[in-house]
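Query structure, 121 tokens:
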């Protein structure tokens, strides 16, 4: 996902405040609900998700229902958009924090300050 895609999604959303609120509520999902939500981004079916996670298709359906409820959404598509924007925003934040280095191989080691005299035994 790139910035143009994000802009298109935001422009296509009539209620940007509701979208932002749903993105913030992603943190309320359980670990398993989060795993399911992330798989919705790629358009996977309940059956495909159940096979990947080793749970029943019915359990996936329950998780999708809880995801929709917790995020205040009405559709899987909405949940997929919110999950995609959430992941994008997290990756963007990490990239800014680490200057993008965490996403590349061969980054130089982080310089650490020398210990002060008081740190030495």
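Result returned for the query:
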């Amino acid at each position: 996902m790139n910035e143009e895609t994000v802009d298109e999604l935001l422009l296509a959303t009539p209620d940007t405040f509701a979208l932002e609120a749903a993105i913030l509520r992603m943190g309320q999902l359980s670990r398993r609900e989060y795993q399911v939500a992330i798989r919705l981004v790629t358009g996977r079916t309940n059956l495909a998700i159940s096979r990947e996670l080793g749970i029943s298709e019915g359990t996936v359906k329950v998780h999708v229902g809880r995801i929709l409820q917790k995020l205040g959404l009405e559709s899987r598509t909405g949940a997929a958009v919110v999950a995609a924007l959430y992941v994008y925003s997290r990756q963007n934040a990490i990239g800014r924090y680490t200057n993008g280095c965490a996403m590349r191989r061969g980054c130089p080691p982080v310089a650490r300050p020398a210990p002060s005299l008081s740190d030495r035994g």
